[in-house]
Write a structure and sequence with these properties.
Blueprint: E1 8-11, H1 21-30, E2 36-41, H2 53-60, E3 67-72, H3 80-86, E4 90-94, H4 101-110, E5 114-119, E6 137-141, H5 156-166, E7 172-176, H6 184-190, E8 194-197, H7 199-202, H8 211-227
Parallel strand pairs: 1-8, 2-3, 3-4, 4-5, 5-6, 6-7, 7-8
Helix pairs in contact: 2-3, 6-8
Bound molecules: D-xylitol-5-phosphate (DX5) and zinc ion.
D-xylitol-5-phosphate binds near residues 14, 179 and 198.
Amino acid sequence: MAFDRSLKVAPSILAADFANFGAEIEAVEAQGADWIHVDVMDGHFVPNLTFGPPLVKAIRKHIKTVMDVHLMIAPVDPYIDAFADAGADILTAHVEAGPHIHRTLQAIRGAGMKAGVALNPGTPASAVEEILDLVDLVCVMTVNPGFGGQKYIDMTGKVRKLRSMIGDRPVHIEIDGGMDPKTAPEMWAAGADVLVAGSAVFRGGSVSDPAPYGDNIRAIRTACDTLV
Ligand code: DX5
Ligand code: ZN
């Protein structure tokens, strides 16, 4: 996976039909998704539960692009090997999930995956300053994690700071939460390159009528293209 700072739209399957993940993923990829974003929640680090490594492993074979796994769990370390075995390309842990993010990121890379670190809205950019050489992706949460369909919280200043801290390093900036054609352009302009979108991609479509997925992805992309 060569480093690429062009705009990428990463639909979150949190907004897909949970009874039909394989077909949903194939449909949204056929409609132009760049990555597939997979939200793992533990009912402890965040107040919601989704699924764990066996489900992630089962959907792997339906993903042709990049499987981007966002862990909203604590602790992380006991599950790293299971997510590597499940086939995650990128594994992202929250900086708030434990006292030893440095060790966690080393372990993720050690298990053969790209390493990501996520920041809750209340966590400053400086929290990741000392670990930028250990990561391939910084995920800026623009909602408090746990649920899809929440209202976007403006994090433009944080994204600009991160963009300047990252400099020439091959590190993606991903935005997660409330991304749609209105909110995405300012994040792209501030230096983000991966835009996660759940409800804004899956709304209006279905496996039997997937064209709206493509329209929704193109709407985000066009809004960003026309801004800069
Ligand atoms: C929130 C998740 C997000 C979520 C985004 O905790 O990490 O990935 O699915 O959903 P939308 O795009 O609906 O805000
Ligand atoms: Zn997410």
